[in-house]
Design a protein that fits this description.
97 residues
Length: 97
């Protein structure tokens, strides 16, 4: 969930967001989230805090995606894992000159 004003993001802006699971902040040490631009092979990694919040500075204009995987031991099957995926795709505008 994007936090803050819903203004158009521009290159150089910081995106503030919150990751929830079943409507609640993810418990534990946070979730690793990658911000990935279509213009770069390198992602920017951040980790959510105890309230599920994180922020990432977006240096490039263009298409972006936030992605992460919540992987945990199954509560119903021994020696099994459960996973949930989160993605958010968005565009970042070039900063006016």
């Amino acid at each position: 969930v994007r936090e803050g004003a819903l203004e158009t993001l521009q290159a150089g802006d910081t995106l503030n967001f919150r990751v929830l699971r079943d409507g609640q902040a993810l418990p534990g040490q946070g979730l690793a989230i990658e911000a990935r631009s279509s213009l770069s092979p390198l992602g920017l990694w951040v980790r959510t805090d105890a309230q599920g919040r994180a922020a990432v500075r977006l240096p490039l204009a263009g298409e972006w995606i936030l992605r992460g995987t919540d992987l945990r031991l199954s509560t119903s099957r021994a020696d099994a894992w459960e996973s949930r995926f989160v993605t958010l795709a968005f565009d970042v505008a070039a900063r006016p000159r």
